[in-house]
Design goal:
The chain has six helices and four strands. It is mostly helical. The chain has a single domain (2-145), classed as Transferase(Phosphotransferase) domain 1 (Transferase(Phosphotransferase), domain 1, Orthogonal Bundle). The strands form two sheets. A two-stranded antiparallel sheet has the order 1-4. Helix 1 (2-22) packs antiparallel against helix 3. The longest helix is centred in the first third of the chain and has 21 residues, at 2-22.
Length: 146
């Protein structure tokens, strides 16, 4: 959908997350299938089946979420901050909205695209992504955000 649509989407998602996280609620399964859009293009987050309370200062440890949107610390079965994993998933969703494809298959070391990112090979990453996306040019700001 491009960057303009991505900005519009992200603005609303961040408002939703700020509201939920302000009440110490984390979703842990954010993905496009769990985002509803009404006729005025307002976003609603659905399917709170994996949501939980996370009191300030406490970490979570249960393995929850959908693999393609899941933060690496959950995959490694480490304790994690639910607000951070929600932001990670939101970043994956934003990437899909803007680019029309996943940024990587899974946030795991054996995924080539993910490995480019964690190793700092950003130019190589974006060259590879361009081969698969209809969107050939994105702003430096978008690349830095990702």
């Amino acid at each position: 959908m491009g960057e303009d649509a991505g900005r519009f989407f992200m603005s609303q998602m961040l408002e939703v997350l700020e509201h939920m996280h302000g009440m110490n609620i984390v979703h842990r399964d954010l993905k496009p299938e769990n985002i509803l859009i009404d006729e005025q293009l307002n976003l609603k987050v659905a399917d709170l089946g994996f949501a939980t309370l996370q009191p300030t200062g406490f970490l979570l440890k249960t393995y929850r979420g959908t693999k393609t949107y899941m933060a690496p610390e959950i995959k490694k079965q480490q304790k994690y901050d639910g607000t951070q994993v929600d932001i990670f998933s939101t970043g994956v969703i934003l990437f899909i909205c803007v680019m029309g494809l996943f940024p990587f298959s899974e946030a795991k070391q054996n995924d080539t695209h993910y490995r480019h990112l964690i190793n700092g090979n950003y130019d190589r990453y974006w060259e590879t992504i361009k081969k698969y996306s209809d969107i050939k040019n994105v702003s430096d700001e978008f690349k830095q955000l990702m």
